[in-house]
């Protein structure tokens, strides 16, 4: 069929073309089918959407993802990518070959799969898992796509947390500690997906976090470390596209987690990697057994990639810091670097930094680097190199002006502070989109409280968001209060 192509200003995640319903019926095309588009000696493939309003008959609307296509074109139905068959194979719980996984990764990278097909891929991994062999091949395939960073240093460190624990903002503390000891640590981090803040969201309070690969190299060569958003560089770019499919389903298949994390680390040039695996009833990893299994799987794949790895299994039953949300977590980070701050956040940061020093065979002491001010000075260097104000103080970082204090309804003991629930309250308050939104905790698990004692304060930048957070909190139990004997039973 001959049509006239014109560009349409609609953002789409895949190369999309829009047909009038009458033209689609004549072609035998349905929504999400592929269309082969020929113009002169070039051929394109687009995913079909249909309409009776956006385009007239005889016109093919082309989104920017497909490229610059205008004028006369010839169109016909195109076959689905071969990787769609591989997704079906995995849905049927059969193991994929190395070449199958390589094809899948290439098609994801080139935006050849629709959101429905990507969702099916994620669902297949969630339902049926990946074998060790599949995980190794997937990790290698993801590493081979995109750019790579190479460093002259023989030891390059990195650290990653599996997540799921509110206020677990140890990375902006660990990176300057490690860099202050002379160890290169190019840290790329994520923005929040389902949490009130990711490391990149917290660092964006201080400075820019979006850089090209060359700019990341300049920052690291100047300071020894960086704290940047991983989505801004082309290091294992397939990972970000898979995350987009995982988010609506709220799933995080373990094999895909390993492939995502280690492909990023390998692409960043890191060869000494510390993995923090928090576990607890309300964390992503709910049991000690599951945490140990995941640690062993990380070790096996890292060995294949020639990465020296250490996995720490930490308690993740309650938030780590006091602040939850970008600015509130940034205040905790500065407080710890300045010698104070929430004790658990400081202790965990020091412990993980010392483990990373052992892994790198470096004779350094994290506590000494903190207490001497060397880590704070290194943090300021990194912030300045990333375009921020190195002299920003904790009191300069003010949370949202609208606030609501949540108090205890009875005397008792704090039995639990539920990570997922407290995070949802913070997100409804506007975090992470509103940097000043979030929660400041006034209690810890095991604390004795009396009726009307303050449990936490909700901060928001917008009145409507504060109302939404308060109404949501009224229907849940973010902080559970019980009798002392209940606390003893739970600890047993």
UniProtKB/TrEMBL annotation:
Transmembrane region(s): none
Alphabetized SMART domains for the sequence: PYNP_C (SM00941)
GO cellular component: cytosol
Keyword Nucleotide-binding (UniProt): no
Pfam family, one: Glycos_trans_3N
Keyword ATP-binding listed: no
Catalytic class of the enzyme: transferase
GO molecular function, one term: pentosyltransferase activity
Domain (Pyrimidine nucleoside phosphorylase C-terminal): residue spans on this chain: 413-480
Gene Ontology BP term (one): pyrimidine deoxyribonucleoside metabolic process
SUPFAM superfamilies: Nucleoside phosphorylase/phosphoribosyltransferase catalytic domain (SSF52418), Nucleoside phosphorylase/phosphoribosyltransferase N-terminal domain (SSF47648), Pyrimidine nucleoside phosphorylase C-terminal domain (SSF54680)
Keywords, sorted A to Z: Glycosyltransferase, Transferase
EC number of this enzyme: 2.4.2.57
Signal peptide from the UniProt entry: none
PANTHER family: THYMIDINE PHOSPHORYLASE
Protein's recorded name: AMP phosphorylase
Species name: Haloarchaeobius iranensis
């Amino acid at each position: 069929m001959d049509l006239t192509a014109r560009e349409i200003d609609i953002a789409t995640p895949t190369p999309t073309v829009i047909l009038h319903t009458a033209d689609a019926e004549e072609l035998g095309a349905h929504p999400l089918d592929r269309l082969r588009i020929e113009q002169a000696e070039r051929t394109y493939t687009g995913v079909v959407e249909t309409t009776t309003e956006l385009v007239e008959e005889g016109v093919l609307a082309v989104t920017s993802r497909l490229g610059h296509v205008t004028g006369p074109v010839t169109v016909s139905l195109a076959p689905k990518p071969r990787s769609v068959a591989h997704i079906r194979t995995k849905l049927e719980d059969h193991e994929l070959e190395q070449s199958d996984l390589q094809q899948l990764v290439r098609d994801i990278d080139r935006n050849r799969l629709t959101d429905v097909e990507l969702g099916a891929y994620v669902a297949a991994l969630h339902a049926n898992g990946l074998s060790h062999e599949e995980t190794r091949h997937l990790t290698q395939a993801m590493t081979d796509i995109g750019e790579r960073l190479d460093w002259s240093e023989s030891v390059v460190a990195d650290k990653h947390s599996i997540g799921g624990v509110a206020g677990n903002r140890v990375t902006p503390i660990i990176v300057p500690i490690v860099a202050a000891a002379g160890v290169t640590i190019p840290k790329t981090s994520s923005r929040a997906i389902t949490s009130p803040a990711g490391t990149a969201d917290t660092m964006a309070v201080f400075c820019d976090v979006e850089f090209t690969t060359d700019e990341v190299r300049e920052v690291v060569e100047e300071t020894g470390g960086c704290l940047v958003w991983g989505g801004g560089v082309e290091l294992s770019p397939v990972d970000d596209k898979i995350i987009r499919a995982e988010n609506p389903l709220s799933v995080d298949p373990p094999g895909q987690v390993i492939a995502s994390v280690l492909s990023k680390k390998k692409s960043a040039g890191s060869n000494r990697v510390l993995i923090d695996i928090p576990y607890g009833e309300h964390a992503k990893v709910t049991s000690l057994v599951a945490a140990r299994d995941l640690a062993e799987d990380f070790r096996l794949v890292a060995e294949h990639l020639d990465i020296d790895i250490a996995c720490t299994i930490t308690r993740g039953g309650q938030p780590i810091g006091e602040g939850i949300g970008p600015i509130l977590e940034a205040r905790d980070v500065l407080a710890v670097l300045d010698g104070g701050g929430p004790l658990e956040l400081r202790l965990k940061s020091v412990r993980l930094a010392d483990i990373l020093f052992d892994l790198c065979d470096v004779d350094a002491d994290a506590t000494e680097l903190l207490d001497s001010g060397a880590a704070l000075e290194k943090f300021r260097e990194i912030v300045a190199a990333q375009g921020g104000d190195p002299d920003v103080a904790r009191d300069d970082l003010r949370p949202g002006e609208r606030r609501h204090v949540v108090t205890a309804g009875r005397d008792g003991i704090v039995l639990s502070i539920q990570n997922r629930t407290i995070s949802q309250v913070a997100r409804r308050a506007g975090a992470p989109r509103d940097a000043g939104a979030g929660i400041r905790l006034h209690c810890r698990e095991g604390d004795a409280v009396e009726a009307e004692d303050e449990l936490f304060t909700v901060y928001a930048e917008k009145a409507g968001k504060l109302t939404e957070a308060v109404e949501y909190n009224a229907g849940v139990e973010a902080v559970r209060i019980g009798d002392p004997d209940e606390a003893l039973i739970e600890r047993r």
